[in-house]
Write a structure and sequence with these properties.
Layout: E1 2-8, H1 29-42, E2 51-59, H2 67-80, E3 82-93, H3 100-107, E4 113-119, H4 123-129, H5 135-148, E5 152-158, H6 165-176, E6 182-187, H7 195-201, H8 210-226, E7 230-233, E8 236-238, H9 245-251, E9 255-259, E10 264-266, E11 270-274, H10 278-286, E12 292-296, H11 299-312, E13 317-318, H12 319-326, H13 328-343, E14 347-350, E15 353-356, H14 364-371
Parallel strand pairs: 1-2, 1-9, 2-3, 3-4, 4-5, 5-6
Antiparallel strand pairs: 6-8, 7-8, 10-11, 11-12, 13-15, 14-15
Helix pairs in contact: 1-2, 1-10, 3-5, 6-8, 11-14, 12-13
């Protein structure tokens, strides 16, 4: 199983918290679509023996593309790659792009999964984050989308300054009222060089508080599990058979090709990333060059990635796989580093699988970094 990720580097406006690569100028959109199509074709040999099971339009805001542009890029994948019989084809979209007409059009296209960036149903949160939609649009688009799409995910952000536990519970309840089978939810994080970071530094917005975010996370886990969702990855909750196949492939170490500026690729042994600059990306592709840098992953890199992704998912970290793939030295090191977290009831081992306990889940990324093996080869 392998996937193709297509990065659409355009947004109508910049959300205050976002540090992804995008441009708010649409001037080069037509050129970019042709360049993405060309990269899809040029890189087909990388997947000569692979079957593509997922195609994912991320960004930026992929829903700024027209349906014809989206269909054109999908048809290029079908023309040049072996695609499975029933692939998962996801479009990330914002509510302001999803009118009733647009949703109906999309339902007739090969897109069979929508990932909708709601973030919050509260007007004040959306304004503070500089989202392009309002609360009424968020609800209206879910009402329409659920008429035509069965497989829908929505994004919610917790730990927003001023958001009480009650408001957060209400956000979750509103999402559940639409019968959505998948929710991705993240803590508001302050990335350097973002507008949010500047607003906090100048005292215009309060900084997010860890304790509030931790409470919101606990409420989220408890509420969604009660409603039949499986907490299959730290930030992702899905009903049975509705896990994101695209994201699960990342976490399970499957191969993927990233198309477009700033997109990442992985083939099991090396990781690559395209240049995060629209003009330089376009220039390179037009000159028949691939604007990609790659690094061969060392055994320590691969171990560290497995620890990070394994601990974040319900599949955990297999101690047997650590021994078989990385050797006894790594297994001994992991057992030694994990001991204090096992003693503090933050990690547990069952059936030779290492996983965070409910108490340890919110701290997963910090725990993982303490289990990383650094500079073993040096």
């Amino acid at each position: 199983m392998s996937g193709i990720y297509i990065h659409i580097p355009f947004c109508k406006q910049a959300c205050h918290y976002c540090d992804f690569h995008f441009s708010t100028s649409m001037k080069k959109k037509d050129e970019m679509v042709l360049a993405l199509a060309k990269e899809i074709v040029v890189r087909k040999n990388e997947f000569e023996n692979e079957i593509v099971e997922t195609i994912y339009f991320g960004g930026g805001t992929p829903s700024v593309l027209s349906n014809d542009e989206i269909n054109f890029l999908i048809s290029e994948v079908y023309k040049h790659y072996k695609v499975s019989e029933n692939p998962e084809i996801t479009l990330e979209a914002n509510p302001d792009d999803l009118s009733a007409e647009r949703i109906l059009e999309l339902s007739k296209s090969p897109i069979n999964r929508l990932s909708i960036g709601i973030q919050s149903f509260y007007e004040e949160d959306l304004k503070m984050m500089n989202r392009a939609h309002n609360s009424a649009e968020a609800k209206k688009c879910l009402e329409e989308a659920t008429k035509y799409f069965d497989n829908i995910s929505l994004d919610l952000i917790y730990g927003i300054p001023g958001m009480t536990d009650e408001m957060w519970k209400q956000n979750i309840e509103t999402a559940l009222s639409f019968g959505i089978p998948h929710i991705s939810s993240y803590a508001l994080t302050v990335e350097p060089k973002t507008a949010l970071s500047k607003l906090i530094q100048t005292g215009k917005i309060a900084a997010p508080e860890d304790e509030a975010a931790s409470n919101h996370f606990m409420i989220l886990v408890e509420t969604l599990q009660k409603n039949g969702f499986i907490h299959y990855e730290l930030s992702n909750f899905g009903k049975e058979n509705y896990f994101s196949k695209n994201n699960s492939a990342y976490w399970l170490g499957k191969k993927y090709i990233g198309i477009g500026p700033s997109a990442h690729s992985y083939d099991g042994e090396k990781r690559g990333w395209n240049i995060a600059n629209n003009s330089l990306y376009l220039k390179a592709i037009q000159n028949d060059e691939l604007p990609i840098e790659t690094e061969i992953l060392t055994i320590s890199d691969r171990y560290n990635e497995y620890i990070m992704t394994g601990l974040r998912t319900i599949w955990g970290v297999s101690l047997e796989r650590i021994e078989n793939e990385f050797g006894l030295e790594y297994l001994d090191y992991l057992n030694k580093q994990a001991q204090k977290f096992l003693n503090d009831d933050l990690l547990s081992i069952e059936n030779n699988i290492l996983k965070p306990t409910p108490k340890g889940k919110f701290l997963t990324d910090g725990i993982a970094s303490d289990l990383f093996y650094l500079n073993l080869e040096e």
